[in-house]
Input
Amino acid sequence: MKYVIGNWKSNGRWEENARLLTRVRELPRPGVEVGVCVPFPYLAQAREALVGSAARFGAQNVSPFGAGAYTGEVHAEMLREFGCHYAIVGHSERRQYFGESDAVIADKIGRLVAVGITPIWCIGETLAERQAGKWQEVLARQVREVVERAGVDSVGHCLLAYEPVWAIGTGINAEPEDVEAAHAWVRSLLREVGVREHVPILYGGSVKSGNAHALFSVPGCDGGLIGGASLSADEFAAIAAAA
Output
């Protein structure tokens, strides 16, 4: 199975969304799971547009808490009630701009798994960490800390997305051999901590129609978490076709 999941980030307008979601309905095919993670205000629109199709939808974040006095938070039970299939946790932008720690990410994973939503758990290193030769150390810390807090069983229900921060919107592209090495390292870490062998590992570093086939052909790559390219119906369709 290959996964092609769009992350709209903080983008979207109602009429544009409608056209894009109409196209997304048509994209799933045997062996390829297609979905989109949209901003909270558009979850109802995504649900209505995709109902009855094989395409799936989800959120881009979730509260680490349950119901209660947490003004502004959207908790996992709310997302389940909406019918969300996925929720993204640990995205590099959440780590960078909102200071999310691995402990918070682990708590979010636990909340999602408890209600039957698949976490899309993002990990990855920055350019400085890559240039310092610390990428393996960084990935190991992120994996081990989350597994220690969330537990092997919860992590086993995730889709794991490797997103090298240095290859997102920088003009620097990860080569297929970089992706293969990183995915193999992550897979070895999962085995080390006892997580089930078949957890899918997606690639999330500026996937486009021009590089999707090469990236999806990398051994150990189970698909992609697609950022900016998921906002273009033609680009997203081409990426899904490449899968």
Summary: The first helix runs from residue 14 to 24.
